[in-house]
Amino acid sequence: MSTSRGFTLIEVMVALTLSALVVLLAHRIFTGVVDGAQRLEAARTALDRAGNARRALTELFGSLDVGTEGTGGFAGRPDGVEFTTWQRVPQGWLERRRAVVEVESGVLLARTDVALALQDSVSGAEFDYLLEPGANATWVREWISPVSAPVAIRMRIQRVAAVDTLLFIVGVRG
């Protein structure tokens, strides 16, 4: 009787196949984790950008300055708005700056000394202006005044799949 020590070819092939399957499954798991992390990071970045854009617009509209000499007034059109505001500068204080908020080449921009891209992939923006507070308040499509500003600004941002409506309360009014 011969006792042979070792493995048969079939046993070796089965062991190699199982090992390859384990490596393949581990690779798929790690690839899925990495893809999920990348999607999570992209979603977090988009959410941060949207929050920062909202904060920037709230600050611009909240520190609006009209009715004082040299401010240039408030010019609210259906597709954009231009006004003077007190803006924080890198040195740490506030300076009076002219601001324009509008859509240009598919990007919602807020321009003062520099252009700040607030949102990409925008097909348009519509602005409405609140005349006075109250239950029967009236919104108008245009507000042009050298001495006063509306109570609030409603901005509807159109994108391919959705429309976002943002409401901004105007700070000091002239």
Q: Write the element-wise H/E pattern from the N-terminal end onward.
A: HEEEEEEEEEE
Low-confidence regions: none
The radius of gyration computed from the alpha-carbon positions, rounded to a whole number of angstroms, is 29 Å
Shape: elongated
Strand composition percent: 25-35%
> Mind describing the biggest β-sheet?
6 strands, antiparallel
DSSP helix fraction: 25-40%
> Care to count the β-strands?
10
Order of neighbouring strands in the sheet with most strands: 5-4-3-2-1-8
| Distance, first to last CA | 109 Å
| Broad structural category | alpha+beta
Mean pLDDT score: 88
Count of discrete alpha- or pi-helical segments spanning 4 or more residues = 1
Describe this structure in words.
The chain has 1 helix and 10 strands, in the order αββββββββββ. It is α+β, with helices and mostly antiparallel strands. The chain has a domain at 51-169. Strands 5-4-3-2-1-8 form a 6-stranded antiparallel sheet, covered by helices on one side. A 4-stranded antiparallel sheet has the order 7-6-9-10, with helices on one face. A hairpin with a 4-residue loop joins β9 and β10. The longest helix has 54 residues, at 9-62. It starts with 8 loop residues before the first helix and ends in a 5-residue tail after the last strand.
